Give the backbone structure.
Amino acid sequence: MTLAYITHPDCLRHEMGPGHPECPERLRAIEDRLAAAGIIDWLRHIEAPEAPLGALQHAHNALDLAELDAAQPRSGYAHLDPDTYMNAYTLRAAKRAAGALVRAVDGVMAGEFERAFCAVRPPGHHATRGEAMGFCFYSNAAVGVLHALEQHGLARVALVDFDVHHGNGSENILAGDERVLMVSTFQHPLYPASGIDPLGFNMVNVPLPPYSDGSALRGAVTRDWLPALERFQPQLIVISAGFDAHRDDDMSQLLWTESDYAWVTEQIVEVAREHAHGRVVSTLEGGYDLPSLSRSVLAHIKVLGGFV
Ligand SMILES: [Zn+2]
């Protein structure tokens, strides 16, 4: 089993000012933890290319992409919403982040590696077809899903989102597409306050109340996700892997632990083994408490790579 680890130094150059939780140190903490655990040398390291314009246009409107290009400042910050800023390197980082998904999908489809983890930022799952928001610029996971469908001719791709926030951007882009099944859990109420009423027949949205622990996740996966995934029989599974539901992460009030992230990853890998030749492409979304983020990513990667 080969697990690709796809990232790029450009992903460290996008930053949104001192004290912003979505910071370059997130990626450094992850890499440091993987090194300390002795896992880093077992991964296939790949530099993320910039996503081709055509891949971005599967998920986003051409005019809105051009507007985003025009908004990037030469210095300082451009504010897109109260929490989402661009610096001079933002779009370069965002193109690498979306490009990591394209590269990951190409690699698993070619049999170059079986699974991939994209250690990238900015995250993506709040970016809608026409709008950057919630720390997100391009909808990385949706770009990967649509690349697999459009360029590799797959008929069924599943997107699994366990970030603590609802993946409103992915839903906005993928709702109603019968080639896609999206299953997710998220805290409600919480930003961005969507997800209670699914936008399409292909959305399995499971809101969880504040202070839910890992047993709520396990219940949702067993009761709601797995039967839908079994019926759908995905040929590839993409994961929006956010780790901000961890009990140490003050971005939310959920109480998950590393073992919950390992468990949910096992369930996803099992479905992939049964239906998708084991193919899983995972990409980093949220997770802002650096110690628990890096420990949780380690737990996730150990399962993805079969290192347990
Ligand atoms: Zn999140």
Observations:
- The two ends are 12 Å apart (CA to CA).
- The longest strand covers residues 180-187.
